[in-house]
Amino acid sequence: MTSERGSLDSTMPPAEPAPLAEKPSGFRNIFIGPQGIRAGWRLVMFIALFAVLLNIVLIAIRLIPGVRELFAQSQVNGVLTPAFSLIFESSSLAVALLAAWIMSRIEKRSFDLYGIPREGAFGKFFWQGIAWGLAFVSIEMVIIAALGGFSFGTIALVGSALVKYAILWAISFVLVGLFEEFLFRGYAQFTLGSGIGFWPSAILISGIFGATHLTNPGEGWVGALSVFTFGIFACLTLQRTGSLWFAIGFHAAGDYAETFIYSTPDSGLLAKGHLLNSSFHGPNWLTGGTIGPEGSAIDFVVFALAFVAFVLLYPPKKSPSEI
Q1: Is 1 within the bounds of a domain?
Q2: How far is 189 from 126, CA to CA, in rounded Å?
Q3: Disulfide-capable partner of 185 in 113, 189, 207, 214 (CB 3.0 to 4.6 Å)?
Q4: DSSP per residue over 72-116, as a string?
Q5: Contacts of 115 (CB under 8 A, 6+ apart)
Q6: Which helix (H) or strand (E) covers residue 29, if one does?
Q7: How many domains does the chain have?
């Protein structure tokens, strides 16, 4: 005799086996990984978004009376003006930040992960970078001058014109530092680094960063190599400090020193409204020629010193287990 429960169990249909998890298709695997959209595709999305938005913004601002002529003039003679720099760099920075913010919403990540956290903005690392950038270019120019390749000349600006251009170029180059560092070593470095590793990403992106400068009038391959070297240095500062604020300060101050203070070409570009009537004379390996100090052999010597000094003064951050 069986129990009532036994009789009931014998009449129940057998339990259905749990359905097997459907494996992602091969096509889906190309785009989606364990962490969501793969790093390479996220970077492609960001670049496409940035390019489309930037073109829309530039088309729109060229409709403003006087801006079209301002842009055309800068492209014809290769001489930058503060007005052009302020408009172009601020627009480009705004678009880069917007594109990264949109991607952060898609990826459900904090925007602070992309290299410019709000905590510490324009703080100690930024001002340390400013000091390093000014010192770097000053050491470089003093060495070139001592070797007979550079003359400081006379003062080109006085009074209100001096104050005006000093302030306008300072603001402009802070925008340049923010835009270029965030575009290349902010979202792009974080995203590509998550896929292929920090230093492989740093080398690849720094190579692209250097190559983009070849479009400047007067630029050359030595100058592009210098820009690549700076890119690697900036990545080192990102890794050691945890943010881009040092690199932004260094970038801004270096450009400011070259363009305004020492009044030399900067990556092949000249600027209107500079402090000195300075001049280069001597072989290109020493002066950099039309490229400016970035095309000089001295630039790489000073970079070697900067790498060593930074590694010694900014040791790697300890992990929680080492504290």
Answers
A1: no
A2: 19
A3: 189
A4: HHHHHH-EE-HHHHHHHHHHHHHHHHHHHHHHHHHHT--GGGGS-
A5: 181, 182, 185, 186, 187, 189, 190, 238, 243, 244
A6: helix 26-31
A7: 1
Residue type, 319: S
Residue with tokens 């550079």: 150
pLDDT along the chain (323 residues), means of 10: 44 48 60 78 96 95 85 73 93 97 94 92 96 98 97 95 96 97 96 95 97 88 95 98 97 97 89 93 94 95 98 79 37
Is residue 118 domain-resident? yes
Q: Output the six-digit token pair for 16.
A: 């259905």
- Residue 176: count of CB within 10 angstroms of its CB: 23
5 lies in some domain: no
User: What separation in angstroms does the CA of 261 have from each of 14, 66, 98, 265?
Assistant: 85, 28, 33, 11
Report the DSSP pairing between strands 270-271 and 79-80: parallel
The 10 Å Cβ neighbour count of residue 127 is: 14
Q: Where in the sequence is the domain holding 72, given as residue range(s)? A: 34-316
Cα 251 from Cα 173, distance rounded (Å): 8
Helices marked H in 148-275: 159-182, 188-196, 198-212, 221-241, 245-256
The whole-angstrom distance between residue 244's C-alpha and the CA centroid of its chain comes to 8
Distance CA 148, CA 152 (A): 11
